[in-house]
Amino acid sequence: MTTGKKTPDAGRLDRVVAEARRAAAGREKGYREQALKLYPWVCGRCAREFTHANLQLLEVHHRDSNHDNNPPDGSNWELLCTYCHEAEHRKVLDHDGRGGDQAGGERDSPATYRPFEKLGTLLKQKPGEPEKS
Ligand SMILES: [Zn+2]
Ligand SMILES: [Zn+2]
Q1: 58: buried, middle or exposed (CB in 10 Å: 19+, 13-18, 0-12)?
Q2: What is this structure's pTM?
Q3: Cα(29) to centroid of ligand 2, in Å?
């Protein structure tokens, strides 16, 4: 993001970060390219459409959360915009991470973003009315 001049000191850290990024990007690039060939450039949640101009906002989500599970038919992939992708992982965290405490809700306002298709679940769970005990 920042493209400022690098001091020698910062350069060392930058190099480490850059290498880590490259490794991750290289691994990700394979399935991302495949997924982008397989699927239309549309977010699977909010149906936002993407072009080359904003394609970096379209991310590949693994349906089973296993990034090593990359079947060539794309059955484990889903293209999501970065916002829906984040929401999707937040949802997973709600269940699997952080103790999966359903009555919580004191995380950084996960309720501020609500794709329409989640309305049904939201109505059932009523996250807008946190129970304070
Ligand atoms: Zn989206
Ligand atoms: Zn994902």
Answers
A1: buried
A2: 0.52
A3: 14
Question: How far does residue 92's CA lie from ligand 2's centre (Å)?
Answer: 9
Q: What local confidence, expressed as pLDDT, does residue 107 receive? A: 45
Residues 6+ apart with CB under 8 A from 44: 61, 78, 79, 80, 84
Q: Say which ligand is closest to the CA of 49.
A: 1
Ligand 1 center from residue 90 Cα (angstroms): 14
What parts of the chain have a pLDDT lower than 70? 1-8, 27-28, 93-133
Rounded distance from Cα 25 to ligand 2 centre (Å) = 14
CA of 16 to the centre of ligand 1 (A): 32
